Amino acid sequence: MTSRRSATLLLGALLLATACTSAPDPGAPASAPTAAVTPADTPDETPPPPLAVHTLTSAEVQYGWWNWAAGSEANRSPVLDRDGRRCGERQHEDIWYLAGTTGGGAVERTCAVPVGLPVLFPLVTRVGEAADCEVFMDRAQGSATLDGVPLAAEPLGATRIKLYSVAGNAFGRTVTESENIWSCGLWVRLDPLAPGSHELTLRGSAEKPVISVEVDYHLRAAVPTPTGAV
What we know:
The protein has helices spanning about 5-20, 60-70, 130-140; strands spanning about 95, 105-115, 120-130, 140-145, 150, 155-160, 180-190, 195-205, 210-220. By secondary structure, it is an alpha+beta fold. It has a five-stranded mixed sheet. A four-stranded mixed sheet has the order 1-3-7-6.
């Protein structure tokens, strides 16, 4: 049987030998450091938070909507849509746009809207020169209701925006980039809709040019189905 003194001496020798063999050689090249994994190195699948729609400037409101509405060809345009099948066309992750019409009679649309996103739409709007907007806004009128409750319509006067549009869009003009486009109109901003069904009505009119907008929306606010889900 090994005595306690002998075991202690043996353990000390083993520790000394281990320390000697593991000590770094001053003449050896340093090993490459291991790269630390940071949160930025991993894919972020969390969707961005919704926009604070009531804090958007006039330029942000009108730039965002016009570039959405003019970015689709006529056969896919939510502005020319008659029944709601194009409501989801080119929508953003942090806000949901709705369209009126170009003045071609009454329209009834059924649309799904993601829960948690604010909603933005014009009652009447136009682009052109600053002087065009002054004349337009002088006679522009509009109203909207959500589930029978009147909504506030906000006049946004002549505001300069950049407009990028595609050929064959609903408005008939193609602009690749312009600093001299002015936008104006009557706008409605909505907080995210409560889950469930909602009835939204849009009415708008103007005289120069003559525009009459009449849209009834049957909206269904629901949590979107994840991509690839069965």
